[in-house]
Design goal:
169 residues, alpha+beta, 7-stranded antiparallel β-sheet, globular, isomerase activity
């Protein structure tokens, strides 16, 4: 297990996006505007309801975020796929945080339910990623997790069986 902190501010997330946090060729977050969180408030390899690891992160919502202007003009809504991408980003981040090597790739998701929307009047999203499986063998490095997204405390997305792998190729 690598010796990283259990919380990260925006500067640390940007360091990860530049490939500096986990080193070249390893798990890396996207840079803004695709970086879908402002801070990670808690991360573990053995927490969460299944004892397999978890991540909690926050994303501040501002009316001038790039996606509101184009999705949709006159009816601004954050695309649901961006919330899903934020959950995938955090799943991959957790694998890199564990010290596991390779670049992250989303492999799929079993189930997605969107029950609410993110409009410009929302203040904050909170992401919850709870691992159900984390596997590292000679041939496979993968995390499987469930997730949810809350907007100002209201659960608006539920996700089951997200899969993210790390590959050294």
């Amino acid at each position: 297990m690598a010796d990283y902190p259990t919380s990260f501010d925006k500067d640390a997330l940007l360091s990860c996006a530049r490939g500096e946090l986990f080193g070249p060729g390893n798990a890396q977050l996207p840079e803004p505007p695709m970086l879908m969180m402002d801070r990670i408030t808690d991360i573990s390899a053995d927490g969460g309801p299944h004892g397999k690891g978890h991540v909690v992160a926050e994303f501040d919502i501002h009316p001038d975020l790039w996606f509101f202007a184009c999705h949709f003009p006159g009816n601004p809504i954050m695309p649901g796929c961006l919330g899903l991408d934020g959950l995938w980003q955090l799943t991959g981040f957790n694998l890199g945080w564990r010290g596991w090597q390779g670049r992250g790739y989303a492999l799929g998701v079993g189930e997605v339910k969107l029950t609410g929307m993110v409009r410009p009047d929302r203040k904050m999203l909170t992401y919850y990623v709870d691992f159900t499986k984390a596997v590292q063998t000679r041939r496979l490095t993968m995390g499987v997790a469930d997730g949810r997204v809350e907007a100002d405390g209201e659960t608006i997305y539920h996700v089951k069986d997200m899969k993210v792998a790390l590959s050294e190729s």
